[in-house]
Amino acid sequence: xxxxxxxxxxxxxxxxxxxxxxxxxxxxxxxxxxxxxxxxxxxxxxxxxxxxxxxxxxxxxxxxxxxxxxxxxxxxxxxxxxxxxxxxxxxxxxxxxxxxxxxxxxxxxxxxxxxxxxxxxxxxxxxxxxxxxxxxxxxxxxxxxxxxxxxxxxxxxxxxxxxxxxxxxxxxxxxxxxxxxxxxxxxxxxxxxxxxxxxxxxxxxxxxxxxxxxxxxxxxxxxxxxxxxxxxxxxxxxxxxxxxxxxxxxxxxxxxxxxxxxxxxxxxxxxxxxxxxxxxxxxxxxxxxxxxxxxxxxxxxxxxxxxxxx
Length: 310
Hints:
By secondary structure, this protein is mostly helical. The chain has eleven helices and three strands. The protein is globular and about 60 Å long.
């Protein structure tokens, strides 16, 4: 094999030279991770236990919460453990696995957010056709299609990255194995990798963002025409959603499209933390914990548990 990998492991250096970021790994990262786990586990529990929430919207919300738990668990716990123990080595196979999972979760996250925006568009703008279009079979098929295409997408990027030769260094200046950092270590031509990343951002990121924006434009137009549909509630949910999607896409795009010559290690770490940690942490707050239906469902579930325990 011509492009054989010349290193057997990578070293994840989570703090750039001259910076001590241990306080992040001991405070901010664990607290964010714990908050993400609690918020998303609450959503999964409530949407599963309460029959009133067995609707397409909450079906996808439950899937998103499960995904968010997986997404943040791929990188943050290992980064905290590595910082605590000082053992920053990760095998090439382990690095490839982490890269695959990050790509998979990021892709599926983007598609789930898009599907949920489209679901709200159908519910508000086409209520008579909503249950026909978003029937249980369609919801399951959309979920399976998203997961399968996510595996293909992640496999494509991971395979295209680890076919390269890594002979310059094995030090990755990140708290996880991300592709831009790995490409800087390669002594092979990475032009095809950058083209693939650019096309992916335009097609997947740009396409999903366009669908989300168009869905919300139609939603805003509908609620403004009919004030009885509570425009304030629609704005309070949709605008934070757009902001989170914007942070997710802009931070990820900034990391993946920056040239190695102008790249700043600390800035890359901060931007990576944004697209890895912010969406899973904020999604429960935006979609559920400010939602009256979910609050009522939480009360019902807790009351059932209290009465069943007596």
